[in-house]
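Students often ask why we bother encoding 3D structure as a string. The short answer is that it lets us treat folding as translation between two languages. Here is a chain of 284 residues written in the first language.
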Amino acid sequence: MTDSTNDKTIVSTIKSARKIVIKIGSNTLAKDDGTTNFEFMQKFALQCKNLINQGKQIVLVSSGAQVSGLSTIAGWARKRDVHYRQALCAIGQVELIDKWRSAFAEQKLHIGQMLLTKDDFADDHRTLNMRNTLFTLVDEGVVPIINENDTVSFDEIRIGDNDNLSALTAILWSADLLILFSDIDGIFTDNPKVNKDAKLIEVVENLEELRKSITIGTTNDFGTGGIETKIQAAEKTTSYGIPMVLANGKNENALEGLASGKEQGTLFLANETSLLSAIIKGSK
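And here it is in the second language, the structure alphabet:
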């Protein structure tokens, strides 16, 4: 791990992090009409390239299979049957990864796709293979793009949201930082879309105290997560010594904005005490 866990600003945390996992939510990828925003993907790939040029390594966790499926077969929008939803993801995942391939190809970068389920993280052999694949792809300059395998997942083996998937990925890869891009600027004292007096919480040091001090709402239009899943992701990563940033991916050049201090977000500081305890426990 880097010394980023001791920093208390987003700028310094990104600056000192070498291995960064970035999660892009469905609402970030979707236009207002629910179709995939390819222009956003092109701009995001350029921002990733700029970070890679600075010596950083990037792993991307991308939602959007269902959104991409609806963009391709709009007539299925009203179908709620689980088989249609999984079929949409099968169609949409192809479209999603093809658009990411095109966006990163413009920056002369190759991508690699990994579709995972909860079972993959529970099996030691699969976990080792996943970790080795991640390291190999990144070491060779390829950007891994990860999503949950929604076409085969059911309740018992679903992670259920890409906030927690990205947290598990960050832990698996021993990342220095996890960045969650959503359609909100960070964690607020209340829902800013409802309460105009809600205040942005810029730094979170104690997640238990955070839960007591904020109002947690429900999920949004296109995504499967919400504030709850983002806090769950922070609980996972920070307990392993990995800080997490939550920010608004819809803002113009959001990634570069965070790195330069032009964009706001919420920084969850890593819990070094929990990390030390985990290391000691694992060594016994």
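Translate back mentally: Strands lie at 19-24, 57-62, 111-116, 143-148, 177-182, 187-188, 200-201, 203-204, 244-248, 265-268. Keep this in mind for the problem set.
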